[in-house]
């Protein structure tokens, strides 16, 4: 299935939202004093929520008509491994070199405590991974494993499987209060709700696309409902910048995740009806969103250290404006270079090479 440009654009906007959130901490660390950055940037933390919703949506669309076909499970997992791990490993080894040479420069917030094997394989752990933003990829890996199991089921059972999974997570969130090890934390984390909501939106979208006469969804009403939920989350201070790695509130998952789900569904349905795509620069931003997500903290940290070295440690509003006027374009440029010369060629090479090797195998 072709990429829905509005979903692709949403990836890029989600990455920018995460950058906005992290900018508050980067600014406080390298440009002390007053800043022009608004407090509402803390809501950029929900860029991660948006990523998870998009992930569920896209997985269902990409796997349409493949449910119940066992051979597709291997193809799905192979594709996910190629998409996630190789590019991530480039950043992992880059940070590892710094960690081995100057340990104090990496993961200083947790005194350099890190499990390198778990970080390399994206396995749950008590500490953050070496590439700190990769904690969200650990959830993605879990989503893919569960989705691969659902992919084994006949397509007519697929929506029910997601509903059962949704009820299990809600039940665990409400009822389970016992000790949680790293693996159980990921399994029962409320972020799964957002992935599931996105997947269910994908189911609705496919129904609307395949049977438009029976599924005439009021996209304007759906978009307004989604926007209302997101606005409520902002006004009710559902997002305060607190740690989300251990867990998030059930209310946040349903309100924020539900709001983004409805809004994305409306955008995708409207694009299908109008056959109009989003502007090219937004699609390009979405294309490089993975590189942008992986690289932005590293790039901003380098910018911050260079800023201090050049004597910009005094801080203040003007200094903050200058710092970000320089740093943000650098972040985008580094992400583009990463996408253009690392992510895209590496992913293509591995996808094509693996396909050649598997198709050239003699039949057993």
Question: Can you describe this structure?
Answer:
It is a single chain. The protein is mostly helical and 364 residues long. It has helices at residues 5-30, 47-62, 70-101, 116-121, 135-151, 158-175, 182-187, 191-210, 219-235, 250-274, 280-287, 289-309, 317-359. The longest helix has 43 residues, at 317-359.
SSE order, as H and E?
HHHHHHHHHHHHH
Largest sheet: none
Q: Approximately how much beta-strand content do the residues carry?
A: under 5%
Distance between the termini: 31 Å
Task: Enumerate the spans where pLDDT stays under 50 for 5 or more consecutive residues.
Answer: 358-364
**How many extended strands?**
0
Give the CA-based shape.
globular
| Integer average pLDDT | 91
What fraction, in percent, of the residue positions are helical?
over 70%
| Secondary structure category | mainly alpha
What number of domains?
Answer: 1
Rg calculated over all Cα atoms? 21 Å
Total number of helices: 13
């Amino acid at each position: 299935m072709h990429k829905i440009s509005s979903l692709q654009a949403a990836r890029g906007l989600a990455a920018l939202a995460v950058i906005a959130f992290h900018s508050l901490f980067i600014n406080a660390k390298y440009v002390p004093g007053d800043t022009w950055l608004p407090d509402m940037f803390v809501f950029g933390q929900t860029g991660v929520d948006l990523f998870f919703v998009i992930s569920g949506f896209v997985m269902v669309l990409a796997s349409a008509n493949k449910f119940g076909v066992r051979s597709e499970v291997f193809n799905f997992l192979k594709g996910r491994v190629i998409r996630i791990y190789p590019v991530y490993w480039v950043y992992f080894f880059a940070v590892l070199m710094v960690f081995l040479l100057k340990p104090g420069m990496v993961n200083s917030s947790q005194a350099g405590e890190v499990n390198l094997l778990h970080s390399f394989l994206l396995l749950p752990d008590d500490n953050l991974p070496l590439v700190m933003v990769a904690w969200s990829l650990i959830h993605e890996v879990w989503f893919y494993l569960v989705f691969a199991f659902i992919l084994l089921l006949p397509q007519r059972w697929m929506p029910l499987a997601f509903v059962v999974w949704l009820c299990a997570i809600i039940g665990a969130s409400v009822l389970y209060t016992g000790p949680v090890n790293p693996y159980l934390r990921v399994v029962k984390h409320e972020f799964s709700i957002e992935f599931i909501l996105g997947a269910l939106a994908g189911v609705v979208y496919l129904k609307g696309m395949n049977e438009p006469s029976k599924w005439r969804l009021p996209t304007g009403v759906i978009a307004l409902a989604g926007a209302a939920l997101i606005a409520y989350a902002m006004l009710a201070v559902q997002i305060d910048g607190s740690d989300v790695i251990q867990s998030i509130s059930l209310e946040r998952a349903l309100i924020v995740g539900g709001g983004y789900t409805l809004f994305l569904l409306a955008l995708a349905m409207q694009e299908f009806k109008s056959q109009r795509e989003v502007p090219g620069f937004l699609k390009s931003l979405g294309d490089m969103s993975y590189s942008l997500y992986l690289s932005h903290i590293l790039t901003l940290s380098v910018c911050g250290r260079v800023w201090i070295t050049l004597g910009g440690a005094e801080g203040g509003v003007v200094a903050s404006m200058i710092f970000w006027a320089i740093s943000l374009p650098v972040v985008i440029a580094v992400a583009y270079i990463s996408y253009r010369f690392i992510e895209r060629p590496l992913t293509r090479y591995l996808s094509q090479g693996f396909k050649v090797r598997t198709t050239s195998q003699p039949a057993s």
